[in-house]
Amino acid sequence: MDFQNWMTAVQQRTERALESLLPAADIAPQRLHQAMRYATLGGGKRIRPLLCHAAGELAGADPARLDIAGCAVELIHAYSLVHDDLPCMDDDVLRRGKPTCHVEYDEATAMLVGDALQAQAFLLLSDHDLADDPRRQIGMLHLLAQAAGSRGMAGGQMIDIEGTGKSLTRAELEIMHVHKTGALIRAAILLGAQCGAPIPEDEMTRLDHFAKRVGLLFQVVDDILDAEASTATLGKTAGKDAAQGKVTYVSAVGLAEARDMADSLRAEAREAIEAFGERGRRLHELAHYIVTRKF
Questions:
Q1: Judging by beta carbons within 10 Å of its beta carbon (0-12, 13-18, 19+), is residue 98 exposed, middle or buried?
Q2: How many domains does the structure of the chain reveal?
Q3: Which of 18, 138, 144, 262 lies 20 to 30 Å (CA to CA) from residue 69?
Q4: Torsions phi, psi for 86 (to 5 deg)
């Protein structure tokens, strides 16, 4: 299967899995469940589930297990977007081409949607058989919790808030995005690999390095797109970071150097998994897709 068809197939199965794994809209409290589904379904590139499936293929994982792991990470991502868009955070009105959750519903509901989606993610990881060794599955729960918490995504968001209106060095910016964006992308890749057969320690080290490079790559490209693409293309408000005085890779180093950074990060990511050969094909293809995407 070529990459485009593979990507579409994974995106479609992820959408079906999310539809079945989220509480039905007619179950009480209906408004909360409707809003959870509104915030999660029918949009997004599903990059994290794609990375989860790609790493899982490398480890020979059951696709059904990868559906659960990928959806768990996607629910954490969806919750973070709902909270990011709140008036107390980025105060945005558009996400994935439609009104943000707090605009479509209300601020209190959106807050609860984020809380409930986060809890649902851990419910999925604990409710399904994802690893042959129970201790390994506990480790997967630990990995996602760490990626989402104060030493991961939430901590990165705090650094972002504190850095608004300030001048950050490239190193400081990297620390922020290792946490804010990179931690969850890394978790998606490592969770996918852990759904399969154990792989040698040196291979896991290579995969971890790939995951870290791809996490930063995604953010650099995101910053480039925010500076260049339109709101209609992005499905969210373009140029919002610059308008709010937030430091991006483009504002910190310039557009040309940001593009050079993206090329370097992709090369480093590819080199990290070169030894996997054909087993790493989908990961290679996703790294290329991330750096060439237009939205």
A1: middle
A2: 1
A3: 262
A4: -60, 155
pLDDT band at residue 245 under the 50/70/90 scheme: confident
Predicted TM-score (pTM) of the model is 0.96
Name the residue range of residue 277's domain. 3-292
The structure tokens listed for 61 are 């994982």
> What's the half-sphere exposure (Cβ side, CA atoms, 13 Å) at 190?
26
Return the CATH number at 122: 1.10.600.10
Distance CA 218, CA 262 (A): 8
Q: d(Cα 145, Cα 187) in Å, to the nearest integer?
A: 9
Between β-strands 94-95 and 98-99, what pairing exists: parallel, antiparallel or unpaired? Answer: antiparallel
CA dist 236 and 231 (Å) reads: 6
Ramachandran area for residue 106 (φ above 0: left; ψ -120 to 50: alpha; else beta)? beta
Q: How many CB atoms lie within 10 A of CB 35?
A: 24
Spell out where the chain has E strands.
94-95, 98-99
Q: Is 169 helix (H, G, I), strand (E, B) or coil?
A: coil
Residue 206's closest CA among 105, 283, 125, 290? Answer: 283
- Rounded-to-integer distance, Cα 163 and Cα 22, Å: 35
Average pLDDT over the chain, rounded to an integer: 95
Q: Which residues contact 222 (CB under 8 A, 6 or more apart)?
A: 181
DSSP for 182-228, written as a single string: IHHHHHHHHHHHHTSS---HHHHHHHHHHHHHHHHHHHHHHHHHHHH
**Tell me, what amino acid is at 192?**
G
Alpha-carbon 93 to chain mean position: 20
DSSP of 83-122:
HHTSTTTT--SEETTEE-HHHHS-HHHHHHHHHHHHHHHH
Structure confidence at residue 64 as a pLDDT band (50, 70, 90): very high
